[in-house]
Each structure stands twice: as structure tokens, then as C-alpha cells.
């Protein structure tokens, strides 16, 4: 790996020297920019899937309903050969190929999507994990068993061909099997995996959990950071840096500190990557924003981004917009009024108003603080006091920034900070409370913080929603806005309040956890599905809006429910809230649910087999 890095380093220096010697045409500048990126992200297949004329031409022809389809298709020939054939097609068609020409080209040179992964039943899957015994209500217990069964349907393993011929795929090779989110998300995703891994740990699937963590470690070792998801086309964006917290979760369940200590060098590397690539200054403090270093529209939503960018006149303005939108994707909240800053400095707007890089995000800063604390803890286990001091100091610095810039005495909560207008953004997002979950607050202030935060919750009427706390209080049609509710955000709120530990905070935490469990259960009883997102306004309703249809599966939703069934299963029952029909009927429905899940699995299995 280091030899590879050296070669790429030399190559890119050579390119830079060549560029300096040349006249600085826009083309040379562009190549220089790409050379810099290539140093970090040296995948051959990026020429096809990340940027360039082929990607542009095919994605703008809109051959498929979902733009992600094309970039998930495998190559039949090498990237070089494919590009050569594409150039030949363009030359033959006077640079204006018809939609049919392009469809024929894709049919000839690309294989079906989703062929890189095969179904995989995790070998450490347990028929009856102990968490099930924590659940009193028989229907909820059956649901816990169903959710545990779903891990088997979401298991995937890469085919050997991906390892042997990585250049032919957009997927990034990883050695161990993974649990995917589900729906259109047929590869692993970074932040999703945190809640999936916790669910696996509660399901006693320690090998699968460790394997997924090892995959992420191997990615950091190869390319220096973890992309948003397991595809080369997510090349310039990461996601909430949760790898260190994944290792911490694994250690909390297994006590395997040796694993954590062995991972330390890689965890530090990822931490430094974030610190080096996401820093901004506010009120004299170093703080962190989500940002992206690639060029061009999102490959998986290419034509959509080009359309939205039409209102920008210059190439620079379009490119800046693409960066903002990819930075929004890095935050995981793609998309939300949380990132909109209009000319008046408010959040009224649409996607073209997105300014992610100018919003200091509470969650990212609290998370980097947490990373530094966990790394210090692991170093302390290793007896490396120098490193402990180094990382405690880093944590303390971030904490000072959070307190000085993000804590807002008036609002009684942490708020994102707008760098353009140099002011806090007083809009509710669950992440405003994320320092509670990640311990990014001064423990001696617990009582005071608890009182202010509970007032903040009351003032924003956050307890009024039957289906969970919405992501924002603004309905824009974007999927990370009202009325959508997301499992990881409920998790941050509930675990944060529980962590705060005052009686009032704990009571609200419990209430919200129970509500979430029962509302998810209602949706499951009605439709036999677990959803990617739910609906705050409807008890048992699922979410919608945004760029694609609602997805089922669903990794992080299942993970959060399994954790809360474990923690609250002795108390939560259907008579406590709104709850659905008689126990016997729901039990029958639940059994039907298992049957239909099994049937779907068989059907999916067949289709996948046919595809090979
Ligand atoms: C900004 O404020 C002006 C004056 O109040 C108003 O006319 C305009 O519509 C506002 N723009 C947005 C995007 O809210
Ligand atoms: C989005 O907002 C911009 C600027 O306020 C406006 O020009 C554009 O028409 C809006 N786009 C849509 C799709 O509403
Ligand atoms: C926490 O608060 C206490 C009391 O207000 C203060 O003495 C201490 O310095 C604070 N600690 C940090 C790390 O800010
Ligand atoms: C359901 O919860 C209520 C309130 O906590 C409790 O009184 C009741 O006994 C519980 N029922 C079952 C079947 O656990
Ligand atoms: C684009 C960019 O600034 N990349 C930097 C990210 O951080 C690493 C070190 O962790 C640098 O080597 C890159 O240059």
C-alpha cells in the first residue's frame, strides 16, 4: 500500500510539474485538480464512474429512472477499452449520439447492476439471541425475532471477481461480508453501519460486526478515509466519522481492547483526515464543517444536479453548487433546509440555496471531540501516556470551540453556526442535542444543561408528534425535513437525554423510546416492512419525499429497534400508547409477516440467481 502511495505521489507530482510547464489552460487546471484527488483515490474505474465525458453523456441521456442504476453497472471490458470504444462511438456519431446509440453502448459494455454481491447468510447468526428474552409483550417479542431474521436477508458478500478485477466495478472491494441497509442501497454505507453494527452486537453476531469494522479499517488503510458508501463514485465525500465509535461499541460488548489498540493507528489516521480537510475558523476557534473535495455533479444523481445547477451562470458557480450538494451528502442529511442559507441569512429556500460548507455542524464537532476522547481512552489501555495527553488536548480544544461558538445560552441548546452571516442558526434539528449523546459537554453543568435543553424541547413543541420527533420543523419536500423522522436521529435524542441522566431527561427519553418502538411496530404490523424513514405526524406512518421512493429493509431502523427492545422490552407494551388491535390478531399478523418476509426472500433469491 505504501509503495502504491509513493507511486501515485510521484505520478501526481509529475503531473503537477507538467502542468506548471504548460500554458495554464482550464484543461490543465482541471487535470491538476484531478491529479491531486487521484493521489487519495486511485481507482482505475473512477475514469468511468466518477467524472468525464462518458459519465456525463450517458447520465444526461437519462437511460434509467434512477440515476444510480447506471453507475452501479459493472464493466464488461477494461476502463481503458471502454473509454476507447466510447470515443469511437462519439466520433462516429458526430458527438451527438442518440439515446438509442447510448443504450446500445451501455448494453454492450456494461453488465447488470448488483452483480458484485451475492446473498450471504452470516455464519454467526443466532436463532434465539438473548435480547429476545428481554421482551415481555408477546407481539413485540415475535417482532424482535422477525428483525433478527431480517439480518439474514440483508447479508451480502463480494464475489471473488471483484477482488480479482476491481477495475471492472464501481464497488469498492472489502474482504468481509456486510449487512446492507436494503432497498436501492445495495452496498454498505458508512454512517448506517454504526446502527447496523450495534444491532448486530445486540444480536450476538460479533464476527459479522467485527468483519464490517475491519472492512472500514482496511478502506482507511488503502485510501486514507471512508467514502460515504462502498462505491468509487462517492470519491470526495465521507460521512459522519463513526468508525472510532464503532470500535468502541465492539469493545463495550466484547472487552476486546487488543482489537482497539491494534486499530489505533488507523483510527488516528481517519481523525487526522477529518481535521485536515474540514476545518474552518469561527470566533477564533478551529471548528469543522462537512465538505467535499471532488469535482462535478454527484455521479449517482448526475442529471438532477446538472438541472438544479442551471440557474447558476458561471462554471465556478455551478462547481461551487456541486461541492455544496456533495457536502450535504457527506453530512448524511441529503437534503434538508438545515443547509439552506438564503440572501437574508435564513433557511427559506430550495436546493439551489444549499450552503453546507458554511454551516458549522454541531454533530460533526461533537463527534470529532468524541473520536479524540475514545482514541485517548484506547491509548490509555495501551499505556501510551504521551498519546493520551495529545488526544485529550485535541478533545479539550474542540470542546472549547463547541462551548464558545455552538452552545447558545439564549436558545438553551447547541445550534449550528452560519459562517456567512456569522450568527447561530436557531432552527431545530435533532443534531442540536447531539453533544448530550457524545458527551461533548461539561459534566459539572449537567443540571443547568438539563433544565435549558428541556425548555428548548418544550418551546419547540417537540413532544407533540405521534410518530416521533421530526428532523426539522419545516416542510420543504426534502427528505430530511418535516415530517420525516429517522431512526438515527431518534437514537441521538433518546440516548442523549438518557445520558444526561436527570430524572426529567430520563423520563422523556423513555417516553420517546417507547413511542418510537410502538410506532415502528404499528407500521410493521400494517405492511410487514421496516422503513428507511418514518412520519412524525402519523403514528405508524412511513416517510416520503426527497429524490427517490421510500426504501424498505432497513438496516439502521432494525438496529435501533433491536437495541431499544433490549433496553425497554420489559416495560414497553402496546397498552401504553395508541397501540394496534388485540394481541391475538397482531400475533397472527406477525406470523404472516414472517411468512411473507420468507417468501420475498425466496423470490429475491430467484431473481438474483437469474441475473447471474
Ligand atoms: C429577503 O428579504 C426581502 C426583504 O424583506 C424579501 O423581499 C425577500 O423575499 C427575502 N428573500 C428570501 C429568499 O427570503
Ligand atoms: C429555487 O430558488 C431560486 C432562488 O431563490 C429560484 O431562482 C429557483 O427558481 C428556485 N427553484 C425551484 C425549483 O423552485
Ligand atoms: C466545567 O465547569 C466547571 C464549573 O463551571 C469548571 O470549573 C471547569 O473548568 C469546566 N471544565 C471544562 C472542561 O470546561
Ligand atoms: C403494560 O404497561 C402498563 C404500563 O406500564 C402496565 O401497567 C401493564 O402491566 C403492562 N402490560 C403487560 C402485559 O406487560
Ligand atoms: C483535499 C485535501 O485537502 N486533502 C487532505 C486531507 O487530509 C490529508 C491528511 O490527513 C492530506 O494529505 C490531504 O491533502
What's a concise summary of this model?
This protein has one domain: Glycosyltransferase (Alpha/alpha barrel), CATH 1.50.10.10. The chain is built from 23 helices and 14 strands.
Give the count of structural domains.
1
Which CATH-level-2 architecture? Alpha/alpha barrel
Order of strands in the sheet with most strands: 3-4-5
Gyration radius, in Å:
24 Å
N- and C-termini, Cα separation: 32 Å
Return the average pLDDT rounded to an integer.
89
- The amount of beta strand, in percent, is 5-15%
Shape by Cα distribution: globular
Share of helical residues:
40-55%
Sheet with the most strands, sense and barrel status: 3 strands, antiparallel
Total helical elements: 23
CATH topology annotation: Glycosyltransferase
The low-confidence runs, each spanning 5 or more residues with pLDDT under 50, are: 1-39, 578-591, 600-612
Secondary-structure-based class equals: mainly alpha
Ligands in the model, by name, code or SMILES, are: 2-acetamido-2-deoxy-beta-D-glucopyranose
Description:
This protein is mostly helical and 612 residues long. It has one domain (26-464, 487-495, 503-508): Glycosyltransferase (Alpha/alpha barrel), CATH 1.50.10.10. It is built from 23 helices and 14 strands. The protein has helices spanning 2-21, 26-40, 46-49, 53-60, 68-71, 79-92, 99-109, 138-154, 160-164, 190-202, 206-223, 243-254, 257-277, 302-308, 315-331, 362-382, 385-406, 434-437, 446-459, 487-500, 503-527, 555-568, 583-611; strands spanning 73-75, 110-113, 117-119, 155-158, 178-179, 279-282, 285-288, 359-360, 407-408, 413-414, 416-418, 423-425, 484-485, 534-535. The strands form 6 sheets. Strands 3-4-5 form a 3-stranded antiparallel sheet. A 3-stranded antiparallel sheet has the order 8-11-12. Helix 8 (138-154) runs antiparallel to helix 22 (555-568) and helix 20 runs antiparallel to helix 21 (503-527). The longest helix is centred in the last third of the chain and has 29 residues, at 583-611. Mean pLDDT is 89; it is low at 1-39, 578-591 and 600-612. The structure holds 2-acetamido-2-deoxy-beta-D-glucopyranose (5 copies).
